[in-house]
Amino acid sequence: MRTTVASAALAAVIACSTSAVAQTPKRGGTLNFAISAEAPTYDCHAGNTYAVVHAVAPFYSTLLKFDLSKYPAVEGDVAESWTISPDQLTFTFRLRDNVFFHDGTKLTSADVKATYERLRNPPAGVVSVRRASYEDIAEITTPDERTIVFRLAAPNPSVFQNFASPWDCIYSAAKLAEDPLFPSKTIMGTGPFKFVEHVRGSHFAGTRHDRYHVPGQPYLDGFRGVIFSQGAAMLNALQGGQVLAEFRSLSPAERDRVAGALGPRLRVEEESWVLKLTIAFNAEKAPFNDPRVRKALSMAIDRWGGSQGLSRIATLRAVGGVMRPGSPFATPEAELAKLPGFGRDIRAAREEARRLLREAGHPNLSFVLTNRTLAQPYTPGGVFLINEWRQIGVTVEHRQVETAAYNAAQSSGNFDVLLDFSNEFMDEPNNGLTKYISSDRSPNNPARAVDRDLDRLYDLQRRETDPAKRNAIIREFEALAMERAYTVPLLWWHRIVATHTHLRGWQMSPSHLLGQSLAAVWLDQ
Amino acid sequence: MLRYLGRRLLLMIPTLVGVAILTFFMLRVVPGDIVEVKLRGDGGNVTADVIAAERARLGLDQPLIHQFGDWMLGLVTFDFGVSMWTGRPVVEEIALRLELSFQVAVMATIVAVLIAIPLGTISALFRNTWIDYVVRIFTIAGLAVPSFWLGMLVILGLLAWFNWLPPITYTPIYVDPIANLSQLIWPALAVGYRYAAVVARMVRSSLLEVMKEDYIRTARAKGVFERLVVMRHAMGNALLPAITVIGLEFAFLIGGLVVTEQVFNLNGIGRLFVQAVARNDFMLIQTLVMLLAVVFITVNLIVDLTYAALDPRIRYK
Amino acid sequence: MATAAPAIASAPRRYPALIAFAIAQPLGAVALLVVIAMALAATFAEVVAPYDPLDIDFGAMLAAPSPDHWFGTDSFGRDILSRVIYGARTALAIGLLSSLMGCTLGAALGIASAYFGGKVDMAIQRVVDIFLAFPIIVLALVVVAILGRLPVLGVDMNLVLAIAVPIVPKVARVIRSSALTIVTMPYIDAARTAGYSHTRIILRHIAPNVAAPYLILFTAFIAQAILLEASLSFLGLGVTEPTPAWGLMLSGSASDFYREAPWMILFPGLAISLAVFAFNLFGDALRDYLDPKFKT
C-alpha cells in the first residue's frame, strides 16, 4: 500500500504547511457550511449519525476532547486536569472554574455526573445508545463542585478515551431534573455557540456564546449549517461559495470538480478514515453456513487492485484488517498479506476460491447482495464486488434498498450477503471488534453467527491494559475472524474535506465526528 | 347548482376514506420502521431493548386496528399527530414547506399560461404549416425532456457560464422578493416548460375542434377575418379543456416536484415526502397523502365548477 | 379528462395502412422510424453494443468520446454508448410492459364500468377516484418496497407493476366514456335481448370499438412510463446498479463530473428525451390518423 502511505504523507505535509503559517485569528463573520443529512434528534446521547454532531456539537462541551494535532491523544474540554490510579480503576477529573451554560448558570461536577448517569443508566423514556461504553463504571462521585470521580468495576483500556467522545454532550443537571427529555427538545449547553434556530429541512443557526471557557474563542460571530439532501446541490453550493465547507467528506470526483473550478481558493485535506465497508455473510443460511463458501467469496476480492481503482471514484482507499491501517493496533502490511483475501497474488487466490466453492458443492453459486442506495461509497462498493465475484463464476444480483428496508433486512436476517459498514469515532478495538463477534452478543454484527472462540479473544483483549499483550491477542483474533469469515472488511474509507482557503482553524482528523465545535474556526477576510 | 355541489362534496368522503385505508395498511406492510433508522443512524451498537422501548413510545407496538382507529379519530378531529422523526406536529412540518411548494406551483402556472396560450393559438391557426410543425416539435420536446434533467442543466449552466447560483435557503417573498424570486424562478422555469407544453397542446387541439363547429362556420361565411373569429368566438370555449389541464397540473405540482426539489435543494413538500418515505415516518406520510388527495379532489371540483359556470351547455346531473 | 367519441378507424384503404399513415403523418412516420430503430438496438444489444455494459475498466475511467468509445466512458470506465443501448432495452421493456399492463387493466375496468353500469359502475368509479387521488411516488415506492424485486429476464416486474398502477385509473376513465357511447347503441341492446353472454358482447361488440382510443393511450403511456422509470431510477427507487438504465446513469455522482465528463449526463438525458419524444410524436400522429377528435 505504498501509494496510500505516500499520499497520506503528502496530505500531512499540506496540513502542516497550512497550520505552519500561523496567523492571529480574526474575529467576526458568519460561517456557512453544508450538512448533507438531517439530524433525527437534538440529543447527542440518542444520536448515531454525524448529522447530529455536525448540527449540535458547536452548542455543547464534553469532559475531554481529542487533540487533533496529536490524534489519538486527548486534552481537556471542561476538565482542567485529571489523574488515573495505577490500577487503572479510578479516574479523577478537576473541572475548569469558568464554564457557563447558555442560560447563565455555572457548570459544576453535578452537571457532569448527571450527564454520565444519563448515558450509562438512562431513566425510563430516555434513549442512550451508548450504555455499553460505560457498563464497567461502578460509581460516579462528586467530592466537591469542581471534582468528579469515576470508579470502574474492572479494568477497561477504552474507558478513558471514551470521555472524549463527541456523543457525550454535557447537559445541565437542573434542566435534566425538570425534564429528562429536555435535550431532545431544546439545545442548551456550554459550547462556543448559542442556539438560534433550526428550520427543519433548511438549516441550523448559532451565535457566539460570550462566556465560552476558552479565552478569545469562539472567533466567529455565528454559523449556519445548511442542510442538503442531494450531493450535487451541495457541491454546487460549495463551488459557488455559498457554503465554505462540507466537513464529512467529498468523493474524489467531487473533489476534482471543485478543486478544478476554484484552484488556489480551495484547500483539500485527505486522511484515512475510521470507517470501513464490511461484507456480512448470513451464516444462518445455506450455503453461507459453510465456512469454505464464505472464505472463497472473501478470497475472490482483489482488495489491492480494487483499492487503486475505487480510490479514484469512491471514498474508499486503504486495504486493512479489523483495525484501521496506521492506527495503534493495526496489522503491519506484510502480515496482512498473509490473511485469506488479502494476498497479493489474486490469480492464485481466485484459483483457490474456485477450488473451495467446488469442494463445498457450489461451483455456480448465485445470490443477492443487499446494499444501501447511497452513492458513496456503497454503490461503487457493490458494483465492484459483483464484478469481482463474476470472476470466479458467481452470479450476484444487486439489491439496493432505502435505509429503513436495509435495517429491516439486517435485523430480520432477510438477506444472503450484506454490504455492511463500520463507523467509529476513534480507533478503539473494544468498539471496532464488535463487528466480528457473535451476533447474540453484538447487535453490531449482522452475520448471525455464534462463535465463542472469537468472543473469548475479544473479552481477553478488552481487559488487557498492556498494549503489547493486547496487540498480540488482537492479531490472533483477526487471523481467526478472517479464516472463519462471517464478516470481513472490504476496504477502509478515505476522507476528503475541501474547504475554502479563507476558512481557518478547522482541523482534519480520521473521524468526521471529531473537532466540530467550530470554537477555533475563523474567517480570514 | 347547490345540489350538484352537495353531491360532489358527499362523494369526496368515500374517496378520502378509501385513500386513508389504502395508505395506512400499505405503509404497515413495508419492511422496516423509523425507530431503527433513527437510532442506528450510521451504524452503531444499539441493543434490541432500546429499540423496543422506542417503538413502544411511538405506539408502533399497538395492534394495527388500534393504531388505525387512533389515526382516524385524529383525522376527524383535525389532530394529525406528530412526525415520528422530529416529534413535531405534522401540521407544523407541512406548513413550513407548503408556502414554498405553493409558490413554485403558482409561478410555474404563470410561466406555462404565458407560453402556452399564444403558442397553442398560433399552432392551431397555422395548422399543418411549418409554424405548426415547429410549435408541435417544441411542445412535444417539452413533454419529453425530464424536468429534473433540464434543472440539472440549468444549474450547471448558471454555474459554468455566470459563476452564479440561486440562493440556497428560502426567503419568503414578503420578506425579500428579490432573494425569493432569484431562488424560485429556476425550478419554476424548468417545470414550467413541461407544463406549458401540456397546456399548449390542449389549447391547440381544442381550438381546432371548436373552429370546426357550426357557429364558427357561420362567422366565417359572413366573411369575418378568420383570426378575429378565433379570438372572439373560439377562445372562450377552447379555454375550457385548457383550464382542466392547468388545474390538474397545478394539483400535481404541489406534491409532485419530488425530483426537481432534490436538484434545486428546495425545502418543499415533494422533498419532505421523499424523506418521510425514506425514513418510514408513517404519521407524516399518511397526512401528506391525505393532504395531496384533498388538494387533488378539490382542484378537480373547482375545475368542474368553472367548466359549468363558463359553459352553459353543461347541465348539473 | 377527455370525452372520446366512438372511434371507428375510417382511413382511406387505397394504400397499405403503414404507407397511408406515412403519407398522412410524415412527422409521425419519422418518429415511428426512431422507435423502430430503438427497438432494434434494444433487441440486438449484444450485437450492436461495442462493449459489455457491465465491464469495469479502471484504466479507461472518464474517457472522452473517441473512436474507441463514441459516447465516452463513465466513472467505472464502462462504455456509455453500450450502456445507453442496453439502457434502451431496460426503458423499452419497462415502458412497454407497464403501459400494456396499465392500459389493459384500465380498459377492462372502463368497459366493465360502462357496460354493467349501476352499482358496478359506482364501485369502480370510487376505486378509480381513490387511485387518481393517490400520489404516484408513494404508490411506486410502496409497491417496490412491499413486493421487493422480481426480476424476470432482467426486467423487474414489480417496478413494472409500480409504474402500471397509476396508469390504470386514467385509462379506465377515458375508456369508460368511450364505451358509454357504445353501450347505448341499439345493437348492444339487441345482443342483450338475444341472450348473448356478457363476455361475448364485451369481446365481440364493445372491445373492438374502443380499440382506437386504447391504442392511442397505449402509445402515450409508453412515453410516460419511460419518463417515470427514469425519475424513479434517478431517485434510487427504480432500477439499481449495475443494470444499465438511463435515469440511473443521471443519478448519483453523474453531475459531479460535468467539467471532466459532461458526456456522462448528456447522453443518457438525450436518450430519455429522444425516446419519449419519439413515442409522443408517434402517439400524436396515430391519434390524428385514427381519430382526430380524440384528446388525451
Break the fold down into its secondary structure elements and pairings.
The complex is a heterotrimer of chains A (525), B (317) and C (296).
Chain A: H1 2-20, E1 30-35, H2 50-56, E2 64-66, E3 74-76, E4 79-84, E5 90-95, H3 109-120, E6 137-144, E7 147-152, H4 159-162, H5 173-178, H6 182-185, E8 193-199, E9 203-208, E10 222-227, H7 231-239, H8 252-262, E11 266-281, H9 291-299, H10 303-313, H11 333-336, H12 346-360, E12 366-372, H13 378-390, E13 395-401, H14 403-412, E14 417-423, H15 429-432, H16 452-462, H17 467-484, E15 487-500, E16 503-504, E17 522-523
Parallel strand pairs in A: 1-10, 12-13, 12-14
Antiparallel strand pairs in A: 2-3, 4-5, 5-7, 6-7, 8-9, 9-10, 11-14, 11-15, 16-17
Helix pairs in contact in A: 9-12, 16-17
Chain B: H1 2-28, H2 34-40, H3 48-57, H4 64-76, H5 90-125, H6 130-144, H7 147-162, H8 177-212, H9 214-221, H10 226-256, H11 258-264, H12 269-279, H13 282-310
Helix pairs in contact in B: 1-13, 5-6, 5-8, 5-10, 5-13, 6-8, 7-8, 7-11, 8-10, 10-13, 11-12, 12-13
Chain C: H1 17-24, H2 26-43, H3 45-48, H4 80-116, H5 118-133, H6 136-147, E1 151-152, E2 155-156, H7 157-164, H8 167-183, H9 186-193, H10 198-206, H11 211-234, H12 246-250, H13 263-290
Antiparallel strand pairs in C: 1-2
Helix pairs in contact in C: 1-2, 2-4, 2-13, 4-5, 4-7, 4-8, 4-11, 4-13, 5-8, 6-7, 8-11, 11-13
- Tell me which oligomeric state these chains represent: heterotrimer
Low-confidence residue ranges of chain C = 1-12
Radius of gyration of CA atoms of chain C, rounded to a whole number: 22 Å
Bulk shape of chain B: globular
Largest sheet of chain B: none
The CATH C-level class name of the domain at 92-259 in chain C: Mainly Alpha
CATH superfamily of the largest domain in chain B: MetI-like
Strand content of chain B: under 5%
Polypeptide structure, described:
The complex is a heterotrimer of chains A (525), B (317) and C (296). Chain A has 525 residues and is an alpha+beta fold. Helix content of chain A is 32%, strand content 21%. In chain A, the strands form 5 sheets. A 5-stranded mixed β-sheet of chain A has the order 13-12-14-11-15. Chain A has a 4-stranded mixed β-sheet with strand order 1-10-9-8, with helices on both faces. The longest helix of chain A has 19 residues, at 2-20. Chain A is globular, with a radius of gyration of 23 Å. Chain B folds into 2 domains: 2-76, no CATH class; 90-310, MetI-like (MetI-like fold, Orthogonal Bundle), CATH 1.10.3720. Chain B has helices spanning 2-28, 34-40, 48-57, 64-76, 90-125, 130-144, 147-162, 177-212, 214-221, 226-256, 258-264, 269-279, 282-310. Chain C has 13 helices and 2 strands; from the N terminus they run H-H-H-H-H-H-E-E-H-H-H-H-H-H-H. Chain C is elongated. In chain C, strand 1 and strand 2 (155-156) form a beta hairpin. Chain C starts with 16 loop residues before the first helix and ends in a 6-residue tail after the last helix. Helices cover 66% and strands 1% of the residues of chain C. The chains are: A alpha+beta (525), B mainly alpha (317), C mainly alpha (296). At the A-B interface, helix 2, helix 7, helix 14 and strand 14 of A face helix 2, helix 3, helix 5, helix 7 and helix 11 of B.
